[in-house]
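User: Hi! I'm working on a homework problem where we have to compare a predicted structure to a textbook description. Could you give me the structure for the chain below?
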Amino acid sequence: MPCSAVTLSIATISAIIATALLAIAFSTDNWLYYDVKRSNIQMFAAKHTDADDLFNSMTNKYFYYPRTRGLFRVCFPKERPPLNAVPTYLSPIETHCSNLDYFPQIDDEKTSNEDANSRLHLARSCIALFVIGFVTIFCAFWTGLSGCWKRSSGAITATSILLLASCLLSAGAMGLWHTVEFFEKEKVVGEDYYQQWNTVLRDNTKITYDWSYLTAWAGIGACLLAAILLSAAAICLRNEREKEEQLNLQYLMPVYSQKQPPYPPYASYPQPQIYPGPYYHGSQYGPYNY
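Assistant: Happy to help. Predicted structure tokens:
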């Protein structure tokens, strides 16, 4: 089996897996998991008589509840906060979620400082890079289909370049996402985020990366693998095409006539008999003259 067929098959499978993983990660809400130990906070508040504000915050602030966060939503898999804390709706997977606001009002407190504005623009850019990456994958699908149909090394090379571009765009989006995470932990960007939490909430909240985040990186890795394999397949196709052309040239080479001396007269064994002339047309004897 030609190496191009094997490499193209593996590259196609890798590209499909990469697209599926990136789409799943982009659309799901399990990038970060906030494990808030509400029972420990309640015990702390019960021991301190001056903790009325803490009790009120536990009821009226959604970030006192265990939750998962994705690119577009915050979901509450365990306890649902009251509607006065955050408006929620039932997602397709039967989880109460609330949409993240990427276009807050100008007079919102969350956009009242430079760090908050920077975090917001970085978060928007993260979404934009993911979208551009999906558009690039869509273009790579058509060039790859054309390359496989025509067995064109040029089209396969273009597909490899497009998938590599999609991989870099997605990796850049992940870098922006980590930058947003850094702003939320280290900068003053709003009371919803770690930097402005009180000490009790910080001590009783554990933030971990969830499966959607890992799926995104797995999709980027599969996309990079597909780009490398497609590049190798293009090289194989080019080499196979050159071999075919060399074989065709052998059949197309012109054959020139060769000058050979005339054949010797017919010889009979054991000695050649050569009849001397003169020779006449027909017989010269009897009534059979012509």
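For your comparison, note the following. The chain has a mean pLDDT of 84. Helices lie at 3-27, 38-47, 52-60, 114-150, 153-186, 199-203, 211-252. Good luck with the assignment!
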